[in-house]
Design goal:
Blueprint: E1 44-45, E2 49-57, E3 61-68, E4 73-80, E5 86-88, E6 95-97, H1 102-120, E7 131-137, E8 140-146, E9 151-152, H2 153-158, H3 166-185, E10 198-200, E11 206-208, H4 245-261, H5 268-273, H6 280-283, H7 289-298, H8 310-318, H9 329-338, H10 345-371, H11 384-392, H12 396-404, H13 414-418, H14 421-426, E12 427-434, E13 444-448, E14 459-466, E15 471-473, H15 482-491, E16 495-501, E17 511-515, E18 521-523, E19 528-534, E20 542-543, E21 549-550
Parallel strand pairs: 12-14, 16-19
Antiparallel strand pairs: 1-2, 2-3, 3-4, 4-8, 5-6, 7-8, 9-10, 10-11, 13-14, 15-18, 16-20, 16-21, 17-19
Helix pairs in contact: 3-4, 4-7, 7-8, 8-9
């Protein structure tokens, strides 16, 4: 309960209608099973915070949707609960280390406390989801974050056809790069930058979240690794790998790679064995060359050869031609170091001398061959069929593109596509449904990107799926019951309204007439069907009361909350 005794949904912390057991905003139902490793929904911490369901969890702990009953607002609470080395006492909800893991638990908890202390001090750094409280309870530590109404960047990309142009991405990412630079100067390395740990608010501002201790972001650590495939740097897959600001350079470069190409990069671990990452510009020719080069340099497998810090990376992104336009002083210094030194004059003279000598020797060789009559011999002609056959065969390059390119999905059933393991391993699908007169229901009628587009790594493909014909013949409903009529219209995806009239000759409870009438062609998108029915005791001769109105059954109110 809130201070005003309003019952809240444990799934989204929005007020529940009186007597409701299912939330109209998020669909959460009371009494739904929960993991005993985590807090019971409805738990109150510090006599202040009402805890709801788990929103996110990994090997370090869990994040809960919560409500600050003192400030009367939503918050997010992060609990240190590394379930690989710890367990929860069901009777009092205390967290305790598993037998034999006491040292590891204590070390990880100490790291968690230090990280939360650093985050709590970042009140002046924009772009980081703010920490507003930290406390001890249940023998563990809790961190309270401000609640921001936002999408994660992965969902944002799905809503924008899977990718952005550099012009769109530049406005969003430059402030985030500045945020990362400030974090690094405070000694904080994120290590988990990915589309899942970046939020997009209503103003298209990016927020960084998902901070975890280093052990969680390193393969082989005591608490267990929670790495993002395609975005974790190669050094994160080994305990001996040295991590630093360059690790975040890799992560943000990989996010930009995914943003501009629509393709998720190959994971850093496999790239240590076989590195076949395509430069971004090869996947999308519209990406500026300097942007493609900067991203590729930021994703070098070798941490020593990689761009070392965010300032330098930002400078490369803003570089144009021979100029070095940057927003950070340190990046200008680094870029100056990379300029080529002028060659020594003596070296240039020696090179020219060698070239002239080689040309003279080549001339003498061709003169000797000509004198021997080598060039007088006629080249045997090739049969025309051989030429035709060779021209029809794909080159090695064409074969590679075909193997890695996007298949032709048009004309295929969407369910068949989604259930095909070969497709599931290579693509993530975004479905967009609309009516189509040429293709039957559930059949793909268009796709983005087009067939053959290179996509060597897992990326997004938008499939436009037919809902069938928009037009349908108006069914005959006169004389039927209201229940039958509304069910029939719902099945045909038609909107309707019920109009009550007085008609002494009509039978109560049955449809007197409809508009449009039986057999007329009506649109599922724009038409509204009017059902005229008699109701006993109606005073007015005609009333469009709308007692039964609306479209297909199952549509819920908007999921957006009122914050």
């Amino acid at each position: 309960m809130t201070p005003n005794n309003v019952k809240l949904c444990m799934g989204c912390m929005n007020p529940l209608p009186e007597g409701a057991s299912e939330c109209p905003h998020c669909g959460y139902q009371e009494g739904v099973p929960y993991s005993l490793s985590y807090l019971r929904p409805g738990t109150v911490l510090k006599e202040r915070y009402l805890v709801g369901k788990v929103m996110d969890k990994n090997s370090e702990g869990a994040t809960y949707i919560s409500y600050d009953q003192t400030e009367d607002k939503k918050v997010l609470i992060r609990e240190f609960m590394p379930d690989q080395i710890a367990e929860r006492n069901e009777s009092n909800q205390y967290v305790r280390p598993k037998t034999g893991y006491e040292r590891q638990f204590k070390t990880a908890l100490s790291d968690f406390v230090e990280l939360s202390r650093q985050l709590l001090a970042l009140d002046k750094i924009s772009g980081v989801v703010p920490v507003i409280d930290r406390f001890v309870d249940n023998n563990t530590v809790y961190v309270v974050y401000r609640y921001i109404r936002a999408l994660n960047f992965s969902a944002f990309l799905q809503r924008n056809s899977g990718e952005l142009t550099w012009g769109q991405a530049k406005k969003m990412f430059l402030p985030l790069l500045n945020t990362l630079s400030q974090l690094h100067k405070k000694g904080i390395v994120h290590r988990g930058i990915s589309p899942e740990t970046i939020l997009v608010d209503q103003d298209n501002k990016l927020w960084l979240t998902g901070f975890c201790i280093a052990d969680t972001r390193t393969e082989g650590g005591d608490v267990g690794a929670a790495l993002f495939e395609g975005y974790a740097a190669p050094e994160q897959y080994s305990l001996s790998g040295w991590q630093g600001s360059w690790t975040d350079v890799y992560g943000i470069s990989a996010v930009l790679y995914r943003t501009l190409t629509g393709t998720r990069p190959a994971d850093g671990n496999s790239r240590r064995i076989s590195d076949d990452l395509c430069p971004p510009r090869e996947l999308n020719g519209k990406i500026p060359a300097n942007i493609s080069d900067a991203i590729f340099a930021g994703m070098s497998v070798s941490s020593e050869k990689r761009v070392q810090n965010i300032d330098e990376f930002t400078g490369l992104l803003l570089e144009e031609g021979d100029t070095h336009t940057a927003i950070f002083e340190s990046s200008k210094v680094n870029l100056e170091i990379k300029k080529k030194k002028p060659k020594n004059r003596k070296v240039r003279v020696a090179v020219w001398a060698m070239l002239v000598t080689m040309l003279i020797l080549l001339g003498l060789m061709f003169w000797a061959l000509y004198a021997l009559g080598i060039f007088d011999q006629e080249e045997p002609s090739r049969p025309s069929q051989t030429i035709s056959y060779l021209d029809d065969q794909p080159s090695e390059v064409d074969s590679a593109v075909s193997a890695d390119g996007v298949p032709d999905f048009v004309g295929k059933d969407i369910d068949v596509i989604k259930n095909d393991p070969a497709y599931a391993d290579r693509f993530e699908f975004i479905e967009k449904e609309d009516y189509n007169e040429e293709y039957s229901k559930n059949i793909v009628y268009d796709q983005e990107p087009a067939q053959g587009t290179p996509m060597p790594n897992k990326g997004y493909v938008t499939l436009y799926v037919s809902k069938g014909s928009e037009m349908v013949s108006m069914p005959g409903l006169t004389g039927s019951t209201l229940e039958f009529a509304t069910k029939t219209l719902t099945e045909n995806e038609l909107k309707y309204e019920v109009v009550y009239i007085v008609d002494a000759s009509a039978e109560s409870g049955l449809i007197i007439r409809t508009y449009p009438t039986e057999g007329e062609m009506v649109s599922k998108k724009t038409s509204t069907i009017y059902l005229y029915i008699k109701e006993e005791g109606t005073v007015s001769s005609s009333s469009s009361s709308g007692s039964f109105s609306g479209g297909p059954v199952g549509v819920r109110p908007d999921d957006d909350d009122d914050e």
